[in-house]
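Human
Can I borrow your eye for a moment on a structure tokenisation matter? Give me a protein, with the fold worked out from its sequence. Write it directly below this note and I will take it from there.

Assistant
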Amino acid sequence: MSIGIEPPTKKMKMILEDGDFIMKTIDKCIEDIDNSKNNLEPVLGDDFGETLQLVKVFVGITKDPKDLSKIVTTLNEKVPLKQLQHLKRVRKKKVILCPASYIIGASSIQQFIESTVMELQDSFQYFKEMDVPLTAPRLQKQFKEYNKIWSCNFHPNAYLEKLTSGDFFNSVDLNNHRTYMKMAFEVSRWYIQHSNIINSIDDVYKNINGAIVVDPTIQSVVAVSFDNRENNPIQHSAMLAIDNVAKTQNGGVWFETDYKSNEKLSVSDELLTYLKLKFPSVKFGSREYISKRDSATDECSKNSNDGPYLCTGYYVYLIREPCFMCSMALVHARAKRIFFCLDNIYFGALKSKTKLQTKSSLNHHFEVFTGFL
């Protein structure tokens, strides 16, 4: 009696072909990261953009320049430019009176002046409406452009100038950042090869996301993770990465059976061996964790700015731009810098849909970099 082997079904062939495509695509991404000659790009707020935002204001042309000091003092007291304090009130004989929106309800700017600052009703030859910069210049090049329109107050920031120079990271830093991003792809490769995720491969590459968490003070990988939404809808890669960091600090809620607490690194022995073979020069492991109670009596910890609290001071490397949930989790985890490789055009919260890191209302802000490919 012979035993036959069932030929592969069409679905099985598609799975194998897609799996091979994923591996080749991961290889291509790693190769492109290796060959990239570009520096990384910071993801900054819209106020760093090329488009100059303008707002309409009313300007008065003074009759006698000798009255400018009195005019400005009076206007600052009675019609302060609360949202336009980056603008100088006077430019030659022109004085900014108020934003155009202030005179809603008044028939003219003359009527507004007569009803609001009556003592200045005869101080101007005429009035005109004009556009001025809505926001303060952040960079030297912006300052030069803004000044062509209206005189602005400006305080140069050397760090911001360097950040936007296109040459922020030196060659050593770039090599480190690229290495950790390549590691995120290798973590994804390992999980794909060692799990049943290949059984639902229709668009898996579009959604895969690996994460690497690094302590830059000791140049060491603290935690790694891979997306597990197939089994738990909130176990995105960034969420798992934060939880894995918590495990190095005697915490964590999603425990894996292969996690060894004495490693000071929340990663399985098998994956750790794989990564060490792929990246022999990379260091793995976290600093000794000191609780708040213990740190209260430790003079060194008292003066530390980097912890101990989850991802404080840490860099997080993600294949894909994190969603809103993950981005807010990274805010609460106090990450220092976020690096991502691919835009998440539908759900990305750090570049594509919004730039969460630029929201002034948040109580923590991190820097964001991309541009690996």
